[in-house]
Amino acid sequence: MSEQGLTTVALREGIRRIAARMEQEAEALNALDGALGDGDLGVTMVRGTRSLLEELPNLPEDVGMALLRCAQVFTRVSGSTYGTLLATGLMAGARRAKGRTSLPWTELSPLLGDAITAMAARARSQLGDKTVLDAIEAVRVATAGLDAPAALAEAADGAVAEALARFRDQPAKQGRARIFGEKSIGRDDPGMVAFHRMVQALR
Question: Superfamily assignment of 8-201 in CATH?
Answer without folding.
Answer: DhaL domain (1.25.40.340)
